[in-house]
Amino acid sequence: MSELPDNQRIVVTGLGAITPIGLDTESFFNGLMSGKNGISLVDAFDTSAFTCKIGGQIRDFDPTATMDPKEARRNDRFVQFAFAAAKEAVTQSGLDFGSEDPERIGVFVGSGIGGMDTMEKNCQKLLESGPRKVSPFLIPALISNMASGVLAIEYGAMGPNFSIVSACATGAHAIGESVKTIRLGEADVMICGGSEATITALSYAGFCSMKAMSTNNDDPEHASRPFDAGRDGFVMGEGAGILVIESLEHAKKRGANIICEIAGYGASCDANHITAPHPEGKGLISAMKRALKSANLNADQVEYINAHGTSTPYNDKFETAAVKGLFGDHAKKLMISSTKSMTGHLLGAAGGVESVACAKMLQEGKVAPTINLQNPDPDCDLDYVPNEARDAKLSVTMSNSLGFGGQNASLIFRAFE
Predict the structure, then answer these.
(1) Which molecular function GO terms apply here (predicted)?
(2) Distance between CA atoms of residues 50 and 292, nearest Å
(3) Of the residues 52, 168, 358, 380, which is catalytic?
(4) Residue 1 has pLDDT above 70, yes or no
């Protein structure tokens, strides 16, 4: 990437995270390194009739710590998460919006599902009390583009602004498309990532009916176990991961502190099945290839992959096959981990949160573990950094995200030179 001009090189200058293992980037990253487990019995609703009763539920989150109390009441929890994470990222970036051209700052923050809690509560009001009891804020609170809209209003960002929805690949696609937007010259700065708040009765009912979720309710801490032979489904989490990214030219001009570089992005579709990944990983291989080409890197230059790693029987096996299919002999030399073993699966926020993790790993020279990996699946025979973090000076990391609909996204981060 060094041969690209500075207006084409994209750097990360701010990180923000709201997760089940930490309500800011530092506590999140420290939680990853210590193998902290964020999975517990859910108490956000009555789970007695549900086959899955566990999740990565965020507790002790106060939206009014960053958002005006009136605005907090009007917005869904997924917007509150995005707002808090963006506040952290923007503060870290040191951006002075008063000295920036507002039309050169954009926001792409996505949500896989949007305001599910708002929708459920207002459906109940409609059925029990009639239409007059439905909130006038129902529609703006539930639509998934509102996180981007609220952030633009907060910062006066008048550049490109919308929400990408691609299920569990949403956050990664939002970041990747933000990279492309800056490279196309449509913006200098993008606030981007994903947010999700779907630990609700209706969400659980749907996923439980699909038999996609873990039913290891008696042992929540060991329920999310990617690549382990005993895995029995994903564990839902909630939260947000937001990045501030900008052209290197812009970052240099304002003397910004640069965390790392986003070198590559690739997107693809399996065109195979609405929920199951391609058994040979063809779509993911294509996305990773595109990311490598975008970054002008060879496959053997990647040192670490943050896997999608959902702890479902199909995903972990097929994702391993995809990594082997692309990387060949180098696959055995890669360090791979699934941070979902600690946070659970944050759906549309996963790609954002895992991008924050990749950026911090480059910055700190440490690799997060895959916890709960006690009995490896014979089909999952790569180095998943089991159970304990590692010190490793990294130059290139990759983050993969897969979504229902067969939608794939791959991001490549590299140490800034």
Answers:
(1) 3-oxoacyl-[acyl-carrier-protein] synthase activity
(2) 42
(3) 168
(4) no
